[in-house]
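# step 3/5: fold
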Amino acid sequence: MLLSLNRTDNSLAVLSIPRDTLITTDKQDNKIAHLMTGGDDQKIIDAVTNNLEIPVNYYARINLEGFRNIIDILGGVEFNVPFDMLYDDPAQNLHISLEKGLQILDGVKAEQLVRYRSGYPEGDIARVQMQQNFIMELIKQKIDTKYLAEISGLYNELSKNVVTNYPSAKISEDIKVLNKINIKEIETFILPGTTEFRQGTSYFVVNDTELKSLTEQKFVLK
């Protein structure tokens, strides 16, 4: 997920990159999700910059424990789960059991929501949309003075679960920008493209023309 914070007009744009997105690394086709498992953050940054032509200034990699802790420390997120979500994968130690309806999702339940993917007829794009919906609810509910005042402490407490090159000295500056953002005007996008099979493997292939138009408008500051 790529975020663009514009300090000039106090706007925020979010771009989700599907896990099966086709990228080229070392002159070979690959899925961007495969880079995530290697833990080489610079390689991921280079892949996004070179393949999508979007400059990346800072990155943050949060492990699942950190994600759960963030949600719990913020008191959970109220979210309307659209349908029952049931899934078990002992190999990943992943067990999902969510009931349909409006509820407060704690860290464990929030993880189940964003990781669930087997029941969407539309495939992984639908999961990406669900993740965006959750992130938007998180932002709407938690960008509040009482929470923003705790971000520095939250940053320090979760440092063991977050790998980032984002300087802590910028937190206060960016909090001021975030506090000026009209939540209703935050824009979310999914990487434009289509699913294609190549040599028996399913890839999400980027539409370069649509992506160029999108990035020039929202993700590359002039």
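# step 4/5: annotate
Residues 146 and 164 are 24 Å apart (CA to CA).
# step 5/5: archive (pending)
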